[in-house]
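Record type: monomer structure entry
Structure origin: computed from sequence
Chain ID: A
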Amino acid sequence: MELGLTGRKALICASSKGLGFACAASLAREGVDVVINGRDTERLAAAKAKLEAKIKRPVGVVAADINTADGRAELLASCPEADILINNNTGPPPGEFLGFEHDQWIEAIEANMLAALMMIRGVLPGMQARKFGRIINITSAMVKSPRPQMTLSTAARAGLTAACKGLSRQVMVDNVTINNLLPERFDTDRQKFMAERIMAKHDVDMEEARRRIAATLPANRFGKPIEFGDTCAFICSDQAGFMTGQNLQLDGGAYEGLI
């Protein structure tokens, strides 16, 4: 299927690895000129080299912290006519509700709600003027299936979801869509971190920890990053222009609800 993305420009936050990189790779393969972002310059350089080896054309790179106003400004300035924005960021750590202090709540809201909203604010006027825009927020399956140990993440990302739902209805008339991807158990460094927690808690090896995690899903396996990236690319396509304000779960069948 021709997605109609050749020559489009994309800003992809936190994309030197994991699901952000997967989105960058899929978009770049479809002919999008991508700008990748992260804080680790060595990791960014490696990601750039990997992408350029595949697509045989330049990839933009911005080493900046999107949790800061200066970092966001630098990223936005690198691609002033962005057609696509992929919002992504590291999630806050798990923990117990009573253990979270005020500063931790503020940090989570800044990173997983306000940073994304400020990036949207930066690209939206141009998208509306050009009558094309695709905004995707990478959030979490727990926006729809909250768990007590992930309260910081769930609360901040649910706030982002609510803010974008109303906005998505307002800007749809300008062919600008805003949708959310809700991942669960993709085979990235995040799952390595979660497996290490299981290893420490239950005194098992990495293989067993990963098996236990995969067994929590009906699919009985981890998601492949390419599956996530290709879904992202489709939602950015011309064909997906009638879909907005949606929460798409990529979770191996984990969600038990109807809506």
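Annotation 1: The chain has two domains: 9-185+225-250, 187-222.
Annotation 2: The mean pLDDT is 96.
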